[in-house]
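Session log. Operator J.P. requested a structure for one protein chain; no other inputs attached. Running the standard single-chain path with token output.
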Amino acid sequence: MIRMGQVSLMTLAGLVWLAGCGTNPLSSDLPRTPYGRYQALRGGEPPQEELDSFGNSRPALRARLRPMDRP
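Structure written below.
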């Protein structure tokens, strides 16, 4: 009885591990919020990444968190 429990536990652990290796459900090119869709439709979408002084790509947090310019 104990061996069957161990086998069941190992099978469950394997299935959970394999399920975690799937593809990401959120694509980086899709807007995540209605606000993001609004910005993309009006051409005001900030860049997702920018290069730092060493040439490495970093998230563009300052550009994304800056208040929108008013028309």
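Operator note: Strands lie at 49-51, 57-59.
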